[in-house]
Amino acid sequence: MLPEVNQNKCEGIGACAESCPTDVIDIEENEDGNLKAVIARPDDCVECGNCVDACPAEAITLK
User: Fold this and answer.
1) 26 to 13, 40, 61, 62: CA distances (angstroms)
2) Fewer CB atoms inside 10 A, N or C side of the chain?
């Protein structure tokens, strides 16, 4: 199960990226100029769920 980011909920604070032991998540600026989490390296994901637990906006799920 890989992490999936709900871009409508994501606040781009980066707690998910900081919690990821394999550096799978990047925080990037979208076309509106807002920071959002992006699953940049899904093949490196170890499915630990740290990102899900770290996200205060509940914007990440494992699917």
Assistant:
1) 11, 6, 16, 17
2) C
| Interval 9-52: pLDDT, tens | 999 999 999 999 999 999 999 999 999 999 999 999 999 999 99
| Dihedrals phi, psi of 12, to nearest 5 degrees | 65, 25
34 Cβ contact partners less than 8 Å away, ≥ 6 residues apart: 12
CATH class of 3-58: alpha beta
Give the three-class secondary structure for 18.
Answer: helix
Residue 39 parent element (H or E): strand 35-39
